[in-house]
Amino acid sequence: MLLISGMGVLVFGAWSVLKTFLIAFFSNKSGVTPAEDAEISEMAYYLVLGIILIIFDVFILWLHFQVGISAMREARGKSFKKRRLLTAFMFILALIDAVLSVFALAISIEKLTRDIEVVEQEDTTIASFFVSFTFLYVMLQLLYSRNKCRKLQKEIASKEAA
Description:
It contains four helices and no strands. It has helices at 2-26, 42-75, 84-114, 119-161.
């Protein structure tokens, strides 16, 4: 299970990067565009936005890669104790994302009860809710599997010593 959870973390990392670029460049729901009277050109704006997104996404990919590969290696019997802090940090991020998704979903449901025309705009919020909780589940599975493997390794080591 630890191996599968590690692969899940890698897949969610790739999805996070892809989703960031899709939202930034193909969706204008945020309404973030350069101001009409701004002195920067639209091309410069998108260049700066692209650079910031690349830096952010490299960090996200690195984090997912470190945690995912660490879990996969540990599933194969190699221990990487220095990755525990990254795993805990990533779990906290997944938990925060899930809580924010609940609030976003509550706002979406409230909007849907007032205006049925909003359905087309709120489908991504509902999908993000399920993705956030799926990733939280993967992280919980990873933590549970990692702890279970460590307990079993300690039991085996104590039986071999006796």
